[in-house]
Amino acid sequence: MIFDTHSHLFESEFDSDRDECFKRLKEIDGKVMLVGFNPHNNQIAYDLAKQYNMYSSAGLHPDEANGNVSDKLQSLKKFLETHKVYAVGECGLDYHYGTDDIDIQKYIFEEQIKLSIKYHLPLIIHSRDAQQDTFDMLSKYKGQCFGIMHCYSGSLEMALEYIKLGFYISLGGPVTFKNAKEPKRVAANIPLDKLLVETDCPFLAPEPFRGKRNESSYVKYSAEAIANIRGISYEELTEVTYKNSLRIFNIGKE
Predict the structure, then answer these.
(1) Which of 82, 98, 214, 239 is the most buried (most CB within 10 A)?
(2) What is the rounded distance in angstroms from the CA atom of residue 72 to the CA atom of residue 54?
(3) Can you give the pLDDT at residue 146?
(4) Apex CA 215: angle with CA 213 and CA 219, to 5°?
(5) C-alpha span between 68 and 27 (Å, rounded)
(6) How far, in Å, CA of 192 to CA of 215, rounded?
(7) What confidence tens digit (pLDDT) does each residue in 84-115 have?
(8) In three state form, how does the secondary structure of the chain look?
(9) How confident is the model at residue 254 (pLDDT cuts 50, 70, 90)?
(10) For helices 69-82 and 102-119, what crossing angle results, to 10°?
(11) 33: which residues sit within 8 A by CB, 6+ positions away?
(12) Which CATH architecture fits 2-35+45-208+216-249?
């Protein structure tokens, strides 16, 4: 079995063939975490998970650091109180397009860290061009929060520090790219029991689909690449990462 720990199959890119995408995932014996990131698609992800016997999370992406933030947070709090989800997020920090909203980003991120602690749910962390601030904020809650560094793009050294904080490292399509030296270094060296695989579909399609729409069944290409990097079989890699996924999301122990 294989587990895509980060997917957005609810996005409009899949409106014409969503059912086929789920069928292709099931053909590779796959499961998926449908990751919400705003008040609208948190509900859609939840409904799709119910429909296809999968799993979902709910959160506020750093892109949501605009408009009425208080209302968005209140919506998320109510959602977590009334729906069975398996993680808080996607949440975190993103400085790629600038830092004009940095204080608001940090505020909504910290509120979600607190929610994850309250409900004892893992965090799904988005960190883009903000590794140090992300690490510093999570370090404040060491021993209280835990979760996943989604589509990890930082250094091996930082990955090992995140693991010490209680986080798993999730790798996706970029690990298959020829010039992706650091993701390959991370894939080769982090403890196997702290490794996860994902797609982040419809984004970041792996080779041989780079530049095209990604989908959850393509998680197998990242898993194959990581298995080759580590010198183990695909079967061993997927068995371990599947068990890791169940563990971090507390699936089967409810």
Answers:
(1) 214
(2) 25
(3) 98
(4) 125
(5) 42
(6) 24
(7) 999 999 999 999 998 889 999 999 999 999 99
(8) CEEEEEECCCCHHHCCCHHHHHHHHHHCCEEEEEECCCHHHHHHHHHHHHHHCCEEEECCCHHHCCCCHHHHHHHHHHHHHHCCCCCEEEEEEECCCCCCCHHHHHHHHHHHHHHHHHHCCCEEEEEECCHHHHHHHHHCCCCCCCEEECCCCCCHHHHHHHHHCCEEEEECHHHHCCCCHHHHHHHHHCCHHHEEECCCECCCCCCCCCCCCCCHHHHHHHHHHHHHHHCCCHHHHHHHHHHHHHHHHCCCCC
(9) low
(10) 20
(11) 3, 4, 5, 6, 7, 54, 55, 56, 57, 86, 87, 124, 245, 249
(12) Alpha-Beta Barrel (3.20)
pTM of the model: 0.97
Angle at which helix 234-249 crosses helix 219-230, to 10 degrees, equals: 110
Which three-class secondary structure string do you get for 98-127? CCCCHHHHHHHHHHHHHHHHHHCCCEEEEE
Q: Which of 172, 192, 186, 170 is CA-nearest to residue 240?
A: 192
Q: Where are the domains of the chain?
A: 2-35+45-208+216-249
* Distance (Å, whole) CA 196 – CA 208: 21
Contact 5, 216 (CB under 8 A): no
- Measured distance CA(55)–CA(10) in Å, rounded: 12
